[in-house]
């Protein structure tokens, strides 16, 4: 509530990822949700799920640069072969959309599915299995069936449709980080 005191928690985010997150409502909301849930789990508390982005300042109080040391990983990590089922279909059948998939963190796989013929997500269906991603729709414009050689946490996976870019964005936490 306005005018009342509150407890603040610092969350460090890689500056390159932070810049990328600023251009994506989906990524920004995903990071904020993950941070909130992580704080709730770590400190055994219940935070209000409503959040605000400061409009005229990037932070309150003072901030200092953080350097996080970790074992250096290659910037591009090879995931192995992604198999997309290519079943024969009639000329008038659904189109196979372009799938862009990458490992955002050791335990988070992100996917963008380009759907230029759609204005929204209405009628789209998405099924995420432990190692499979299947997308279709009632309009029969697109169909995607992709095998992913990683173990996905299907219950924690989330998707959002980006109307401006006409993309379905899927965040898939992994059950175990690839080695």
Q: In short, what is this structure?
A:
The protein is an alpha+beta fold and 179 residues long. Helix content is 15%, strand content 24%.
What features would you describe in this structure?
- This protein has 179 residues and is an alpha+beta fold.
- The chain has 2 domains: 57 residues, no CATH class; 76 residues, Immunoglobulin-like (Sandwich), CATH 2.60.40.790.
- The protein contains 2 helices and 8 strands.
- The strands form 2 sheets. The chain has a 4-stranded antiparallel beta sheet, with no helix packed on it.
- A hairpin with a 4-residue loop joins strand 7 and strand 8.
- Helix 1 crosses helix 2.
- The longest helix has 19 residues.
- The chain is globular.
- About 3% of the residues have low confidence.
Mean pLDDT: 79
Could you tell me the CATH topology label of the largest domain: Immunoglobulin-like
Architecture of the largest domain in CATH?
A: Sandwich
Q: Tell me the number of strands.
A: 8
Put simply, the count of helices is 2
Q: Calculate Rg over CA atoms.
A: 19 Å
Provide the β-strand percentage band.
15-25%
Major sheet: size, sense and barrel closure?
Answer: 4 strands, antiparallel
Number of domains: 2
Structural class: alpha+beta
Q: Report low-confidence residues grouped into runs of 5 or more.
A: 74-79
Query: What spatial order of strands do you see in the largest sheet?
Result: 1-6-5-4
Separation of the first and last Cα atoms: 45 Å
Order of helices and strands: HHEEEEEEEE
Helical content (DSSP H or I, runs of 4+): 10-25%
Identify the quaternary structure here: single chain
CATH class of the largest domain: Mainly Beta
Q: Report the principal-axis shape.
A: globular
